[in-house]
Amino acid sequence: MPEINLNSLKSLTVFKTLYENGTATKTAKALGITQSGVSRSLGILEENLGIPLFIREKNRLISTPEAEELYKEILGLMFILDEVKHSILALKEFGASRVRIATIPGLAFGYVPKLISKVLKHNPKLNIYFDIMSTNDVVRSVESGLFDVGFITLPTSSDQLQVDTIIKTEAVCILNKKHPLAKQQKIDLQDLSNQHLIIPNQPNIAADQLLRLITEKRIKITGKTEANIAGICSLVGNNVGVSVINPITSEDLGHKNMVTRPFSPTINYSFGLIYRKNWRGNKLIQLIREILIQ
User: Fold this and answer.
1) Cα–chain-centroid distance for residue 21?
2) How far, in Å, CA of 291 to CA of 109, rounded?
3) pLDDT at 245
């Protein structure tokens, strides 16, 4: 197959405009060049491609089937070039044209989506990939470069990552409005006696500490249901049992039949933002941190 020489996008632009306008006169006017410039550019393109693109009939140009195929390919190319342009502008302004965000389930249904919404208000052209996984998977994914930014439960340690603490809070107890304990202003560990407990089905700081306390204090529960974070509030809302979770998740996923109460003893939560250390000066990271502070 002979080599095809396309050294400039100018000839493709001239061809595209000529195909759309139908005459060299209109094309020259649209591009601000001479008619002879249009003819010369078309001649060079046809010579480089080795195929005729138009049939000349008196003062008319009739496009060939090859021209139609080339035109479709050029439209795709122009779209890609437009995307590249937007990417370059995003790189100049934000230091990234796309960002891949991974988060733990507890922050995935309100906290991080709200952050993404605010980021996109600053840069609507930013491309975002968003996924939900456990803390360990978030850390590994950001370390390996599969994701750029992560939101995790602290503590964690990594020589490759910058770890910024973003939230410190305390676990709350969530109950159905009709549950007898809902009349209390505060729920303590002893109140969980003879209750059905709903806990996360993945490793969770509050659940792990709560189960340990229940064992140490010999609290007898009637049973437990394990569910993903997204289902816990719904189960409580349907009066399946009670749960102890972080207040961010309870607020984001709260059920209409659910109430929240302080819980004792205190179970602390700490959440962090992680990213690779070479991203520390990145404009996008700075923007994310500013939004989180607000």
Assistant:
1) 41
2) 17
3) 93
pTM of the predicted model, to two decimals? 0.68
Q: How far apart are CA 202 and CA 256, in angstroms?
A: 25
pLDDT in tens, 130-145: 999 999 999 999 999 9
* Dist CA 49 CA 251 (whole Å): 62
> Which band of pLDDT confidence, cut at 50, 70 and 90, is reported for residue 95?
low
Confidence (pLDDT) at 94: 58
Residues 78-87: contacts with CB under 8 Å, at least 24 apart: 78/16, 81/9, 86/125
> Counting beta carbons within 10 angstroms of the beta carbon of residue 20, is it exposed (0 to 12), middle (13 to 18) or buried (19 or more)?
exposed
DSSP state of 145: T
Query: What count of other Cβ atoms lies within 10 Å of the Cβ of residue 3?
Result: 5
CA distance 171 to 155: 16
User: Please, what are the domains in the chain?
Assistant: 10-93 (1.10.10.10), 96-161+273-293 (3.40.190.10), 172-266 (3.40.190.10)
Cβ atoms of 119 and 150 closer than 8 Å: no
